Task: structure prediction
Amino acid sequence: MTTSFLLITFAICKLIIAVGLNVGPSQLLRIGAIDFDGHLTVHSSDLASVSSDFGMLKSPEEPLAVLHPSSAEDVARLVRTAYGSAMAFPVSARGHGHSINGQAAVGRNGVVVEMNHRETRTPESLVRAEEMYVDVWGGELWVDVLKKTLEHGLAPKSWTDYLYLSVGGTLSNAGISGQAFHHGPQISNVLELDVVTGKGEVMRCSEEENTKLFHGVLGGLGQFGIITRARISLEPAPQRVRWIRVLYSSFKVFTEDQEYLISLHGQLKFDYVEGFVIVDEGLVNNWRSSFFSRHNPVKISSVSSNGSVLYCLEITKNYHDSDSETIDQEIEILMKKLNFIPTSVFTTDLQYVDFLDRVHKAELKLRSKNLWEVPHPWLNLFVPKSRISDFDKGVFKGILGNKTSGPILIYPMNKDKWDERSSAVMPDEEVFYLVALLRSALKDGEETQKLEYLKDQNRRIMEFCQQAKIDVKQYLPHHATPEEWVAHFGDKWDQFRSLKAEFDPRHILATGQRIFQNPS
Ligand code: FAD
Result:
């Protein structure tokens, strides 16, 4: 008997009476009776804290209970109960709740597993410096993985722009940033996983063992298992970063330069290639660009041509203090090949960790102005290289007008750095672009900043792509109908569906993605 059993049972009975749940009371009593190492809670503050996400686009919905696990076995105990119940109930892992469209939500009949809630007994990250990997708990935030590995002078190779995301959460999508052109997405840098399947089995998987599950889970939107441990490949951590931004007024020249840079893979290359679009007030609204400091807008206006669209290439070169003599020379050689506006070079130099954690600084600023916890109708698309200029004409120079309500990222990646066997979906071309419209909606803002306006703009962008036959794929996908999901997965759909039947036959896991019907 668990210490919390009576309390939980009492709370559950109260819940049954209060909300008239259509899950049988016996199932609920069974959850309360599980002997967890961590703890199950029905405390109202715990329920409230998992009922919404970063997107804030859906009405908050409290789950039945929240599990704060302290081991993979805890997660397995819960999933086994859900799977074995006459009426199965949903179980969703929640990383850091940074989804946009309720993907980590579970509905009021389900249980959320708060992977990031640190129970004292949750396994510590373990760095194996000789083998160049780290074993991390699935709910660990990347910022903590970085801190841990830096103690050994090592770091993961592939990142997201923002580090307060969980390992399990980004590996369920792909995990991309400016290093992906060379190292591939984060899912291409995983050596092994421990996964709790939808039947409640704890399975170890890798390139050699349970291969189908391994590739399926990577980019698998949480559909086949809950990642409780990931083994991440490491490299020696650079000490410093030279961070450069240059501007372009020609989209063609901008993308030619980006594509040239991602074709370099030898010693002489940049380590990170991204970019963003500046439409009119885009810089003011670009919470990622504190880099263009107070005195810089003067410089920017001198290159801005009558409010037309500008493009900013963002590149970095990593180095060690001992290389500081040669770094300038290497950068000069690389920059000579580029065709940016000559007067538009913005350079800064900082510690590696400060570069990686750059978006958090922007977060703190936005939080201080109450501009972080607002709705985020983000749209992330993978656009094939062959159609990126049509996308520019139709969207950046067309649908967006001169208002963006947030940064618009654009950068190319090489498909050969993505493993086709993973569940991640990308366009059918060797090079494709991420276009990320990272907008914040303001209730009291101008018409163009309001949620409904931005949602409608997203709809118009998708409609434009469809009419122009630009075969985009959504990244962090959100689709409304089964037909849309089938189209999203394309050739991968049959494999995806068959993995679901094998590893989560009762459709218990990650129901917030709304790909499959509710638990059967
Ligand atoms: P959650 O939102 O909690 O979960 C996402 C999905 O994964 C849910 O379906 C959930 O059930 C499932 N899941 C969570 N944990 C696990 C687990 N352990 N095992 C199995 N399934 C699990 N993405 C990028 O690729 N690059 C970026 O640069 C980037 N920047 C971002 C910046 C900000 C400010 C924000 C808000 C998001 C950004 N993202 C980026 C998107 C991010 O990768 C996704 O939101 C992702 O879902 C990670 O968030 P999370 O850990 O909070 O996961």
User: Anything to note?
Assistant: Residues 126-236 form a domain with the Uridine Diphospho-n-acetylenolpyruvylglucosamine Reductase; domain 3 fold (CATH 3.30.465.10). Residues 174 and 263 are 21 Å apart (CA to CA). Residues 53-54, 92-99, 103-104, 115, 138, 160-162, 165-166, 168-170, 172-177, 221-222, 226-227, 476, 510, 512-513 surround flavin-adenine dinucleotide (CB under 6 Å).
